[in-house]
Amino acid sequence: MVVRRVVQEGDTFAQAAAWAKVSKSTVWEWVGRWREATAAEQASLACLAERSSRPQHSPAQVPVEEAARICELRESTGWSPRRLADEPTITRPHSTVHQVLRRGGCSRRPALERPAIVRYQWPCPGQLLHMDVKKFGKFTEPGHKVTGDRTRRSRRVGWEYCHSIVDDCSRLAYSELHDDERADTVTAFTERALDFFLNHGVVAERLMTDNAFAYVNSRSLRELLDRRSIGHLRTRPYTPRTNGKVERYQQTLQREWAYALEYASSDARRASLPHWMRHYNERRTHSALGDRTPLTRVREVTGLNS
Q1: Which of 35, 61, 287, 288 has the fewest CB atoms nearer than 10 Å to its CB?
Q2: pLDDT at residue number 194
Q3: Which residues are in the Integrase catalytic domain (predicted)?
Q4: Is the residue at 110 inside a domain?
Q5: Residues 6+ apart with CB under 8 A from 65
Q6: What pTM did the predictor assign?
Q7: What pLDDT is stored for residue 216 in this prediction?
Q8: Do 266 and 137 reside in the same domain of the chain?
């Protein structure tokens, strides 16, 4: 031990430091602790234990009460550190306020409360249909989403648009792929979709869409809905969850059809859509329907066996 070599063996501080390969100031510190310690502390070597380098006094440190007040004000108002520093009851610069918030774990703004989710389901098929469109990139060879190889990029050759309508009650769905989302395309698709639902005994009463131009400014679509006595409902702006049935369907469409297989091209993917649609409507069960298929749900409610 370095202290013993100095105290008992008579080594100089320089000799003890050279032997222990430490600085002379370190030897001075250890020997000083030894000489100031009691006999019990010397016997247990407690006087030579590691000590924290934290200062014993921090006059510039923010008191606990003030730090708690800063954090409480932050949680209740969501103000920034600069805004908090302007508060008359706080006498610290904004940089110090930011440090207090970071130490207190509240440097991020409190999350806004999300509105309560209101779930609904119309009791009969056709009482409400949901319509939306999903954009997919065209390609001439498989991309990284299905191959997993991000080093090889497929050349995109434009976009194609999957137009879909879903029945709120039964989840019965109809989709088509088109090269655009113009008003005349939307109207023609809607007419074919309504005929599809009618062939399965589903008479449309209401159609819900978002506020896309092709939906709200299409004269041909408005005339089609008027001829068939179908009401047109619109979602609130920037509130896609209102049209949640078709939004959820599009997630399933993307996961189980668009990206499920390694298609040779977007043309091959387009050709597979009718087959997947039959699978979705006739074979794929839904937990929300009691593990029944959409077509089974329609037949149960309408009493048709088409």
Answers
A1: 287
A2: 97
A3: 138-302
A4: no
A5: none
A6: 0.63
A7: 92
A8: yes
